[in-house]
Write a structure and sequence with these properties.
Helix content is about 30%, strand content about 35%. It has about 140 residues and is α+β, with helices and mostly antiparallel strands. The chain has one domain: Kinase associated domain 1, KA1 (TATA-Binding Protein), CATH 3.30.310.80. The strands form two sheets. Strands 3, 4, 5, 6, 7 and 8 form a six-stranded antiparallel sheet that branches. A two-stranded antiparallel ribbon has the order 1-2. Helix 2 crosses helix 4. The radius of gyration is 16 Å and the shape is elongated.
């Protein structure tokens, strides 16, 4: 019985929901931010995600690629006994959204065997609630 409860808990923890963004794309999370400049949104997004442990791997005004070391569960679930660890990788796109707003989309993946050219593999991340909270924190900076 305990084993069944443990499996249920793991299933609930590892599953999440993906959503369809107003742009029509399948993303982990998205928000619409009205009356803010593209630059201000980009800077605020970098700051919020940096406080959550992410570092920028590449950035333009409309696209951000952020990474942080994966957690213990990511390593157990996605890394098939490798000592290379995992990464949480987030791609953020900031799109124009009429009238006078921007749509911020976030797509999160777990990367197994990071930085190993032949073996690196991205797997869709299912626990998306954290990313919705982070994007809401970005939106909260623009009253």
């Amino acid at each position: 019985m305990l084993a069944v409860l443990c499996l249920f808990a793991v299933a609930v923890w590892t599953t999440g929901c993906r959503t369809t963004s107003p742009s029509g794309a399948k993303v982990s999370a998205s928000v619409i931010i009205p009356h803010a400049s593209l630059t201000d949104i980009s800077v605020a997004t970098m700051d919020v995600f940096a406080k959550a442990g992410f570092t920028a791997k590449s950035a333009t005004e409309k696209t951000l690629l952020l990474e942080r070391p994966g957690g213990t569960w990511d390593n157990i679930l996605h890394n098939d006994w490798s000592t290379a660890g995992t990464l949480d990788r987030v791609r953020i796109h900031i799109l124009d959204y009429p009238p006078d707003a921007h749509l911020v989309e976030c797509n999160a993946v777990v990367v197994s065997h990071p930085n190993e050219f032949v073996f690196e593999e991205e797997k869709q991340m299912f626990r998306t609630g954290e990313f919705k909270k982070l994007l809401n924190a970005v939106k909260a900076r623009f009253p």
